[in-house]
Amino acid sequence: AEFLLQLLRNAESNADYSGLDVDRLIIGHIQVNRAACLRRRTYRAHGRINPYMSSPCHIELWLTEGKSAPEAPKKGEKKGASDKSKRSKTVATTAR
User: Which residues lie within the region annotated Disordered (predicted)?
Assistant: First the structure.
């Protein structure tokens, strides 16, 4: 996870240098692919050799600048109750 956090900090720094609004950045695409594993060895005591196991990968991250910052819901609105009633009606009609 440290690699991903470091990559996000680097991407934020690059966006700031490019003149983009850092507060409006959105992760548009992220992809992790396994890289070719090199055959490395760890030399041990008494002439023994063990394989050096690592998991190299390629990380691809695209950031895009969103239209605006997400808005907080208003205090008087309750979305949860209306969403549950809609879901229960939908489930009831499809269950027949």
Answer: 68-96
CA–CA separation, 62 and 43 (whole Å): 40
Check: pTM over 0.70? Answer yes or no.
no
One-letter identity of residue 61? L
Q: Which CATH superfamily is domain 1-67 in?
A: Ribosomal protein L22/L17 (3.90.470.10)
Rounded distance between C-alpha atoms, residue 74 and residue 63, angstroms: 29
Composition of the chain by helix, strand, coil, percent to 5? 40, 25, 30
The two three-digit tokens of residue 78, written as one number: 């309750």
The CA distance from 47 to 39, in Å, is 18
Cα–Cα–Cα angle for 17, 69, 60, rounded to 5 degrees: 50
Residue type, 14: N
Mean pLDDT per 10-residue interval, the chain, length 96 residues: 90 91 90 90 94 89 79 66 49 40
